Structures are given as structure tokens and as C-alpha cells.
Amino acid sequence: MMGTSFEGKVALVTGGASGIGLGTAMAFAEAGASVAIVDVDAEAAEQVAADLRIGDKAIGIVCDVSQEAAIEVMIAKVAGTFGRLSFAFNNAGIHVPVSDTADASTQDFGRLMGVNLRGTWLCMKHELRRMRAQGGPAAIVNCSSQNGLTGNPGLGAYVASKHAVIGMTRAAALKYARKDIRINVICPGAVDTPMVAKAMAEHPDDMQGAIDNIPLGRLGRVEEIASAVLWLCSPGAGMMVGQIVTPDGG
Q1: DSSP letter at 41?
Q2: Is 176 a catalytic residue?
Q3: Candidates 87, 89, 121, 158; catalytic one
Q4: Residue 196 belongs to what domain range?
Q5: How does pLDDT run across 64-103, given as a tens digit for each residue?
Q6: Which residues contact 188 (CB under 8 A, 6 or more apart)?
């Protein structure tokens, strides 16, 4: 991504106040894009925007991505502030406690699907409406997970949600390619984020085992995932449509 400029472009990042989302928002800003940091934590989103702001090139927007009305308001605010939407990284996601399927909470299942699956689908729906109306080029990257490609005992609902994100990404990508809107999906492995740190504290043996199984022998860094997202949005990835990019250390 060295030398790639996103001057004059507008990027939207959900879950943008921490972890991979924060790293990606920072990378877009450093590359010259105007950035909308979207997060359920209003104070954190605004603080990130204040840290990145040069003139009016960053805004923080509170949004619960499981709520369609909130997403409509969010997209309208992005368009109203910046005039268009060039890129979207649909990154917002949650975990629920590890559990055998037989013992899993139906409430947890619904909450997780509401954010990870429904939220990603709703964001993509309204981003595409905006991008279709304004015309391309534009790009969307949805965040799945290494768990979207494999099974993982104890994470049945999470695994299901991330598999589904891949499927809906690939279906939409085929529909919108000829409108010059490229849609792809990224499947990170374990990355050094607050979410992973929490899992490490709660399940140290399981998490250490997972890290030991990574061929590189370490967690990923948020900037490594961010660089992949920005590449997928760049002209250099112009032939990437409906593709799965998996930065997982092997």
C-alpha cells in the first residue's frame, strides 16, 4: 500500500473505535481519505474522529448496526457530511461465551446473529443503495473470520455467522460488479485486539493453543489487517470481486 493515495475518497468503518476497525480507520486517514468512524460507543467514536480530524475529514457516528433505522441515519450523515461514499469496511462484530451447542444460550445466538450477520447485511444493503445512486467506482469489504472457513468447537453461533458473511458477500459481489462496485471479504486469523485479549484472559489455555498453532507463531497486528483492507479498496485490486482474503499467519 506504500504510495497509494485515497485523497478525495470517503471511507466508512463500522466497529471503528477499537481493534481492527480503529487500525483501518487510521490507515484510511493516513492515506488521505475522509473517514466516518461508526461504533456503538458514541464517546469512543467521537474521540477517534477527533484524533484523526484534519478539517472535516473525520467524523464519529454512534450506530447499533443491528438496527436498520440507525444505519439509515448513519449513511445519510456520511453522505450529508462528505457528499459520497467510496469505501465501506463492515467490521463490527461480537463474540458470545464459548459453549457446547446443546448448552448454548438462544438469547446469545440471537444477539450475535443480530450484529455479525444481520448488521453486516443491513450495512451492505444501505451502503449499496448509496453507491448505486452515486455511481462507481466504489468498494465494500466485509469482515468474516478464519472461523468463517473452518469449524471451531464451542463457537457454533460465531462460526455460523462468519460463514454466512462470506456467502452473502459473494452473492452481492456478482450482482454489483458491473456497476463498478467491488465487494470482497476478509477472514483474519487471531489478531492482537481488545476482543482477543479478553478471550485470552477468560480462556488462556485455549487461546495459547490457538496461537501456538499459527505457523508464524504470533498474533496478527491490526495494521497488517488494515493494509489488506485498503489494498482491496485500491485500484491495484481492481480484478478482485467476491474474493476471500485470509491474513492468518498461515
Answers
A1: -
A2: no
A3: 158
A4: 10-245
A5: 999 999 999 999 999 999 999 999 999 999 989 889 999 9
A6: 20, 143, 145, 146, 220, 225, 246, 247, 248
